[in-house]
From TrEMBL:
SMART domains: REC. Gene3D superfamilies: 3.40.50.2300. Keywords: Phosphoprotein. PROSITE patterns: RESPONSE_REGULATORY. Pfam families: Response_reg. This is Response regulator. Residues 4-121 form the Response regulatory domain. The modification 4-aspartylphosphate is found at D54. It comes from the Bacteria. It comes from Thermostichus vulcanus str. 'Rupite'. The keyword Nuclease does not apply.
Length: 125
């Protein structure tokens, strides 16, 4: 099944690589946004099935972006997975408290990325 995913990350290298992996290995449709405000706008317009959201971004960080996504009726139900280079157990629970479906650490394994995302949002493999 083809899934639609939005990546919100301020590092073009990360979202370009992630997009290539998910489109070529999993056959998913991947949209991208380079900032929190752009991601919120795209999520509201495009209605992706899930969002990969970078934790550390300038201007509007991941937790703030997630809070704004959850505040909008058109985006509040979209599953969100954080991407973070700094993952600790304490952070995992704080991210869950914010309403994230999970967290994937950077760098991630290209071969297992799609299955990790699918497991976190409840998609059939």
């Amino acid at each position: 099944m083809t899934h639609r995913l939005l990546i919100i990350d301020d590092e073009p290298d990360i979202w370009e690589m992630t997009q290539l992996i998910l489109e070529n290995l999993a056959g998913w449709q991947v949209l991208t946004a380079g900032s929190g405000p752009e991601g919120i706008q795209k999520a509201a317009q495009e209605q992706p099935e899930a969002i990969l959201l970078d934790v550390m971004m300038p201007d509007m960080d991941g937790p703030t972006t997630l809070a704004r996504l959850r505040a909008l009726p058109e985006t509040q139900g979209i599953p969100v997975i954080f991407l973070s280079a700094k993952v600790k157990n304490a952070q995992d629970s704080s991210f869950a408290h914010l309403g994230a479906n999970g967290i994937i650490s950077k760098p991630f394994n290209a071969a297992t990325l799609a299955s990790e995302i699918a497991a976190l949002v409840g998609w059939d493999p």
